[in-house]
Amino acid sequence: MDAGFNASNILKMDLNIPDARYPEPSHKRAFYQSALERLRALPGVKAAGFVDTLPVTGGGSVQPLVIEGKAEMNPREQPTVSVRVASAGYIPTMEIPLLRGRDFSDSDGDAMLVSAAAAKLLWGDTDPIGRRITLPLESKSATREVVGIVGDVKQGELSEMAGATVYEYTTAVPVRSVVLVLRTAGAPAALTQPAAAIIRELDPNQPVEEVRTMEDVLDETLSAPRFGALLLGVFAAVALTLAAVGIYSVLSYIVRGRSREISIRTALGARTTDVLRLVVREGMTPALIGIALGSVASLASAQLLNRLVYGISASDPLTLAMVAGALALVALAATLVPAYRASRLDPLQVLRSS
């Protein structure tokens, strides 16, 4: 799965700074900037940045946009996008592709990056670099200049398509909670204590929460789908086993019941290959008819499983072919093995015992 970023070697930590100690947006920005400068200087840290909401975790702000120079639209018709507040360095830290333009810089005032999907939604084929946008829910007068286009990132579930996202860099928005992300040269967990110590040096009363690797975050988002896949796999394995055992038991019982007939045919001069061909043909015919009907029923009910599988269709032809082939092999063994054993018996002993 391509989530739109590289989760390897990333350490994240949550900060929630109180308004009592940092009443102004500029105070909060100064604290975050000091923290980032010191974190970037740590040995083993390649890049650092922050964002208000991590990708693939859901949530975050969804807002309408007003594009400068375009006629005003009905509020209900205004395009809406996911809005993330990010720092300079966040995009390269997450290794989100920078498609055009540039990243934020610390000297920017009010700037904005747009994802490829957002650029397509808002401007179509027109170049958005240098255009200005207003976020009316934050300010109806302040505009932000688009300075770059970045790759699409999945903000919600990995199974969903990446939506339109914009990243704003501004000193006006009072960002109280952020997620600091560090890209490390080695194992990110090794920097947990040094990174937390820097935050405590800046503010001894500031707690550092949810210090984890980004790979752990991804694993957590996949826990429910993986559990569902495990259950589905267990039930499928049980169903296949029951079907195989049932086919083998019924067919082998029927063939064993024909031991007297097989002995008579052998005593009358029938060749072993002819007897086996007859028994296999008569035994496989109902089995193949049942497998064909089951395949048709599977295709008809496949829509019920669409939400439980990912990456293939619920009516995946390779899966159906493998299951049908496995059951056909079981049916073949169930007819061939007892028939071969019966054909090797002494016809006189079989006839006397029956």
Structure description:
This protein is α+β, with helices and mostly antiparallel strands. The protein folds into 2 domains: 10-221, no CATH class; 225-353, no CATH class. It is built from 10 helices and 12 strands. It has helices at residues 25-40, 90-94, 116-123, 192-202, 214-221, 223-256, 259-267, 272-300, 317-343, 347-353; strands at residues 10-16, 45-51, 61-64, 66-67, 80-85, 98-101, 111-115, 132-134, 143-150, 165-169, 177-184, 209-213. Strands 3, 4, 5, 6, 7, 8, 9 and 10 form an 8-stranded mixed beta sheet that branches. A 4-stranded antiparallel beta sheet has the order 2-11-1-12. Helix 1 (25-40) runs antiparallel to helix 4 (192-202) and helix 8 packs antiparallel against helix 9 (317-343). The longest helix is centred in the last third of the chain and has 34 residues, at 223-256. The two termini are 64 Å apart. The model has no long low-confidence stretch (mean pLDDT 85).
